[in-house]
Amino acid sequence: MAGVFINYRTGDGATAAVLLDEKLKEVFGPENVFRDRRTTQPGVHFPPELWRHLESCAVLLVLIGPNWLSLCDTDGRRRIDVPGDYVHDEIQRALTLRKTVIPVLIDSAELPKKEQLPADIAELTERQYMQLRVPYAHLDLPVITEALRSHVPVRRTEPQPDPRPQSHPAPPAPGAPQPGAYSTYHDCAVSNGSGNATVNQNRDAQSGDRQ
């Protein structure tokens, strides 16, 4: 299941898509981030695989670069208007499924106006956007990642064993008191021949627990 689906246009945002993909993989795990060039294996039937990931995602990130709206095909048509355009169709399907859709403006890009977009994806302009400036990706990527934490589970990693060798105390020498042991003393009264009793303290030779 891909928790985050990265929508981008070839020729306008591919570099930012790779940067974003690498960062999100670190935080959420590669299985929770979909970017077509990485996730789709050779020989896979692409359209069904694409829609399967889109329908299972929680968030669609729409990367919008400076030329996102103006790029045209060989016939001079804007790509966003051409039937079968994946960028358009992914946005349209995500909006229909009521997914969380976040426009991500790359560098100097601006959010298109509603009248500039096909009617079935015009709602994109009403979504709160974020920004990814490639030269300042180290500042913007953590902000995007933090915003996604409420939508996508963070990758859990198992604790690793400590590689450092464990030190063990040397065993005590024969006859030496054991750690934590103590010696006892017994008080006994003896006669010194004058009829007076004196107290003599004799060390108990036995070490160990108090008896």
Strand content: 15-25%
Quaternary state, please? single chain
Number of helices: 5
Low-confidence stretches: 181-211
Distance between the termini: 66 Å
Annotation, overall tally of beta strands: 7
Structural class: alpha/beta
What gross morphology would you assign? elongated
Q: Write the H/E string, N to C.
A: EHEHHEHEEHEE
Mean pLDDT level: 82
Largest sheet: 5 strands, parallel
Within the largest sheet, what's the order of strands?
2-1-3-4-5
Give an overview of the whole structure.
It contains five helices and seven strands. The C terminus is likely disordered. The strands form two sheets. It has a five-stranded parallel sheet, sandwiched between helices. The protein has a two-stranded antiparallel ribbon with strand order 6-7. It is α/β, with parallel strands linked by helices. Helix content is 25%, strand content 21%.
List keywords for this structure.
single chain; 211 residues; alpha/beta; five-stranded parallel β-sheet; two-stranded antiparallel ribbon; 5 helices; 7 strands; 25% helix
